[in-house]
Specification:
Chain A contains 5 helices and 5 strands, in the order αβαβαβαββα. Chain A is α+β, with helices and mostly antiparallel strands and about 180 residues long. The chains are: A alpha+beta (about 180), B mainly alpha (about 140). At the A-B interface, helix 1 and helix 4 of A face helix 1, strand 2, helix 4, helix 5 and helix 6 of B.
Chain lengths: ~180, ~140
């Protein structure tokens, strides 16, 4: 009986820690460092990041080492096309599944932003029917949102529901004429 | 079909309480009862025992929901919960207490995250499970 009680305490502590951590990180639009503006290329340290991306479907050996979208990586055009992404100044690429309640909230935020700001396109992908692309992009959870620039580079990435002001700010950077 | 998300949180709170009781008392029949609750709710999320309690006792006091959520994630989570609690009950009732404790603890972890943070563990791990199990073409 005392063992059970200890297990209960341990599980609740662990659950509390995980929950608080998730609450802190959920929906945060993490910057995926873009290459220097105007350089048209990549930083020296990342010179061969996209070289191996190959034919759009990047196979990974052991799942855990799926090549995540690297900083500023330009996603292969064929891969984007297979997800239904067409060129736009800014694209909100959302991955969802049927068993995902927050996906709906992300959809709402994204459609609002796309309706508000010309040049922004929202594309929602059913992750389950695009597992190869999901693996290639290193997506493990839904909802995951990738903010893409006009060249198909991942600029920001969020899991969970991003705040609308944050999303607008992230997209505004892409739409500003200085770029 | 759409559901009141507050009903799911309420059900998760009840589930957490039951699972704490299972772990503290080691009662296999209680684990079995919770498994049955999961099974009934998975079959019909509106007629599950906990949602019924919610509608009878809680809903009249707090009024209709501001928004509803799709039922598919909820049903999926109930199926996952059923699988865990069925194994847990089998463990307790057959004398393999370690199995009973382990699976009840995992069920409590998921139910507690849902109750306290509104975070559906089963729903979130669904894609990861599909990635790992689906055949690569």
């Amino acid at each position: 009986m005392t063992t059970g009680l200890l297990v209960v305490v341990a599980v609740l502590l662990l659950g509390g820690a995980v929950g608080l951590w998730r609450r802190g990180t959920d929906g945060r639009l993490r910057p995926v460092a873009a290459p220097p503006p105007g350089s048209g290329g990549r930083g020296a340290g990342e010179a061969d990041v996209t070289a191996g991306a190959g034919e759009g479907v990047v196979e990974s050996g052991a799942g855990a080492e799926a090549p995540e979208a690297q900083p500023g990586e330009r996603i292969d055009a064929a891969l984007l096309a297979s997800l239904g992404v067409v060129p736009a100044p800014a694209t909100l690429l959302q991955f969802s599944t049927a068993f995902c309640a927050p996906c709906r909230a992300v959809r709402r935020v994204c459609t609002d932003v796309a309706a508000m700001l010309p040049g922004v396109r929202h594309v929602e992908v059913d992750a389950e029917s695009h597992l190869d692309e999901v693996r290639a992009l290193g997506i493990w959870r839904t909802p995951t949102l990738l903010v893409l620039d006009a060249d198909g580079r991942v600029v920001k990435r969020a899991t969970g529901v991003p705040g609308k002001p944050h999303l607008i700010a992230a997209v505004a950077d892409l739409l500003s004429p200085s770029r | 079909m759409e559901l009141d998300p507050r009903g799911q949180r309420f059900a998760a709170v009840l589930t957490s309480a039951v699972l704490v009781a299972v772990l503290v008392t080691g009662a296999g029949w209680l684990a079995l009862a919770q498994a049955a609750v999961f099974a009934v709710t998975a079959l019909d999320p509106q007629r599950g025992p906990y949602p019924l309690i919610f509608r009878l006792l809680v809903l009249p006091r707090i009024g209709p929901p501001a928004e509803r959520e799709p039922a598919a994630p909820v049903r999926f989570a109930q199926v996952v919960g059923f699988a865990f609690l069925a194994v847990s009950a089998a463990g307790y009732l057959s004398g393999v207490v370690a199995v009973g404790v382990t699976f009840a603890a995992m069920g409590l972890f998921a139910a507690f995250l849902n109750a306290a943070f509104g975070f559906c563990l089963g729903c979130e791990t669904y894609l990861a499970a599909r990635r790992l199990t689906a055949r690569r073409l």
